[in-house]
Design a protein that fits this description.
The chain is α/β, with parallel strands linked by helices. It has one domain: 3-Layer(aba) Sandwich (Rossmann fold). The chain is built from 12 helices and 8 strands. An 8-stranded mixed sheet has the order 3-4-2-5-1-6-7-8, with helices on both faces. The longest helix is centred in the middle third of the chain and has 25 residues. It binds adenosine-5'-diphosphate and magnesium ion. Adenosine-5'-diphosphate binds next to helix 1, strand 7 and helix 10.
Length: 273
Amino acid sequence: MNVISVTNRKGGVGKTTMSVHIAAGLAHGGMRVGLVDTDSQGHAGLMLGMPQQDGLYDVLIHKKPIEEVAQHVAKERYSTKDNPAPGELWLLPSYRQTFLISHNLGEHETFSFYEAMEAFTTRFQLDAVIVDTNPSLSKLDSLIWLGTDGFIYVTELNRLSIDGVEQALLELQRFAQLRQRYLNRATHVLGVIANKTQKMPKLHRNNKKTLEETFGRLLWEPVPRSILWEEACNDFENPQTMYTYAPSSNEAKIAMKLATNAWRAITEKQDQG
Ligand SMILES: Nc1ncnc2c1ncn2[C@@H]1O[C@H](COP(=O)(O)OP(=O)(O)O)[C@@H](O)[C@H]1O
Ligand SMILES: [Mg+2]
């Protein structure tokens, strides 16, 4: 099982954008992929033009079987007719009731997200599950951390978002111990994406250096700020991924490269055991 959470304790840095593009990019690489939205705004599904539903709530609280709530994402949503993705993508959607999950979870539900991811993986024979997280720190988030094999951090090159990564790393250490003790599973940092970078002002250069010193080769190539990202997802009539909005753009290539990086990191994690 490969459950990969895309995270930062700060909002607006590009977690959802990167989650959706990595998940769809993996399907372009021929993988069978699950995408889990854990945010009550349901933006991951929205970006793929999928109907908004409380799928995660239904699985965790109503114990509905995953195959009843997972949505198959049609290839036209994330690839063109000339170049259809050879893989498959399923979405476990979230909507407004997601924020009630923590409140309505029973006492002994510590591993319910982990178990849901196991069911998702088995039922659809998934190569990887990408989890789009939200910036809160609720009981649901603890469950997500316990069910995560690898983290991808998304950050802007400013103090507040780097601080968000540092806080997320501290959480990782806490939950990694629990995962080892109760599940006998390691937790990995797969990569760090510096997003919305600009022609480096001095501040950004310095912050990039700090990230390089902390993460070394885990720091992937930065994703430059570009209006195309906003244009693609902000069209209310027809929100799209970069793979259909501007398939031959540099942004689409960058997105594909992120998915390749993610797959390489997942494979290396498997080799490490
Ligand atoms: N590289 C980028 N350049 C410009 N805008 C971006 C970039 N990445 C993301 N965005 C935009 O930033 C906004 C927030 O992104 P989102 O993925 O929703 O962040 P989060 O999930 O962390 O809250 C969206 O409007 C998105 O289109
Ligand atoms: Mg988001």
